[in-house]
Amino acid sequence: MNEAIASTPLEVATQTLQRSAWADPHRINADLHCHSVVSDGTLTPEELAARAAANGVQLWSLTDHDEVGGLARAKAAAQAHGLVFIPGVEVSVTWAGETLHIVGLNVEFEGSALEHGLTSVRDGRTERAREMSRLLAKVGIEGAYEGALKYVGNPALISRTHFARHLVETGVCTEVREVFERFLTPGKPGYVPHEWATLSDAVRWILESNGQAVIAHPGRYRLSPLQMDVLIEQFIGLGGTGIEVVTGSHTVDEYKYFAAKSVRCGLKASRGSDFHGPTESRVNLGELPPLPDGCVPIWDNWAHLVS
Ligand code: AMP
Ligand code: MN
Ligand code: MN
Ligand code: MN
Asked: What is the pTM of this model?
């Protein structure tokens, strides 16, 4: 995984994006996946916008889990920094018994089908968190729910990440990754299975909100190559158009693998760090290699977003 960090970031001048940049869209520094305190990130939307601008990001999207509540703040902050802002979201989906994430880009977020649909996805997170806490108590970790709540920026959005931060802070583990490995993943003592949105609902909410749907970090799922192909076929059938190729979750080999797959399947390629915070993320905002040659950036027809 560490090769991903060692790769040379895209070198682009830190300047306001011009339409002329679309003559070579691969050179645009797009970071279309990250999280704020409105879900499980550690920075505010304003801090993220400042960091994105400082790191040379030109097209920036905030994609909080199951929540669009940070987008208005992010948009205002992005505009103040001269960044082109893409309103985004990362929807939790259950498909074939596996949790998948579907990113929506360019979504309308106020009063939209997406905003309404996400309410139902967030419902159930609190009860799931209480159950996680009950299970953790059985292995001797008391008060995890109350502990996790201290890290929550949005009461509707308590996630496993908040539990992980609490267990690191209290010395049960030394880092967030270790908490997931020991306690919070399938088969481990604090894991609670959960039914998220269906793939078809998630894609429909995004499309009805005039956005584009993108399969997030496909390299992370426990799917066979055949299942991945079935997923992609269904996703395209529902109207999905993109797949993440260069993400903080992929190795350099996975960049190449999913670039080739995007070309073969006719999906556009996306690029995003999945940044959650300065001390937890392997890849910094905007500091990713460019998309491999041959794939079509999902932003290739977004020139109209700049004047
Ligand atoms: P939840 O939506 O509550 O299931 O939490 C999912 C979040 O947990 C993901 O978006 C990641 O931020 C984080 N996460 C999942 N797996 C891991 C892992 N193995 N190591 C670190 N963070 C993880
Ligand atoms: Mn997360
Ligand atoms: Mn994700
Ligand atoms: Mn994410």
From this structure: 0.95
Q: Looking at the predicted structure, is the pLDDT value of residue 249 above 70?
A: yes
First to last CA, the chain: 39
Residues less than 5 Å from ion ligand 3, measured at CB = 101, 216
16 phi-psi bin (left φ>0, alpha ψ -120 to 50, beta other): beta
Q: How many helices (H) and strands (E) does the chain have?
A: 11, 7
Is the pLDDT at 274 greater than 60, yes or no?
Answer: yes
**Spatial separation of the C-alpha atoms in residues 12 and 14, rounded to whole Å:** 6
Percentage of residues in the chain having pLDDT higher than 90: 93
Q: Is the pLDDT of residue 110 over 70?
A: yes
Mutate to test the pocket of ligand 1, among 40, 154, 282 (most ligand atoms within 8 A of CB): 40
Q: Are 160 and 185 in contact (CB under 8 A)?
A: no
Give the model's confidence band at 257: pLDDT under 50 very low, under 70 low, under 90 confident, else very high. Answer: very high
Pocket lining for ligand 1, CB < 6 angstroms: 40, 65, 92, 159-161, 176-177, 180, 276
> Parallel, antiparallel, or unpaired: how do β-strands 212-215 and 242-247 relate?
parallel
